[in-house]
Design brief:
The protein is mostly beta strands. Helices cover 12% and strands 42% of the residues. The strands form two sheets. A four-stranded mixed sheet has the order 3-2-5-4. Strands 1-6-7 form a three-stranded mixed sheet. The protein is globular. 15% of the residues are buried.
């Protein structure tokens, strides 16, 4: 199951309010994949679509289309901050399984 940490929910609600978009949510979407599996993106969204799964924590709604939801199994949306950088991150999930023809056998350099 996909989850949203309390820290991520609080920060997202704060950012949305600062942007004049109180009550909006976030959309998590899958973009082009690589040998390490799908890449994900994050965007602001006023309301979900009829075919979305909706995940909620502390007043934040996160919209995910039903095709993407299984790819997020075991992952969490979190907020990370240190002296040098800050931002939303997806953590957890399963490591990709790669076949012998994949470049993952020696490490995937196109991820991250």
């Amino acid at each position: 199951m996909f989850t949203i940490t309390d820290k991520a929910a609080a920060k997202a609600v704060e950012v949305l309010a600062e942007e004049g978009k109180a009550g909006w949510g976030l959309r998590v979407f899958a973009s082009a994949g690589s040998c390490c599996g799908p890449s994900f993106g994050l965007d602001l969204e006023e309301k979900g679509q009829p075919n979305d799964d909706v995940f909620e924590n502390n007043g934040l709604q996160v919209y995910v289309d039903k095709e993407t939801t299984p790819k997020l199994a075991g992952m969490s949306l979190d907020y990370y901050e240190d002296e040098e950088q800050a931002g939303f991150v997806l953590t957890g999930g399963q490591a990709p399984s790669c076949g012998p023809a994949s470049s993952c056998s020696s490490g995937c350099t196109s991820c991250g």
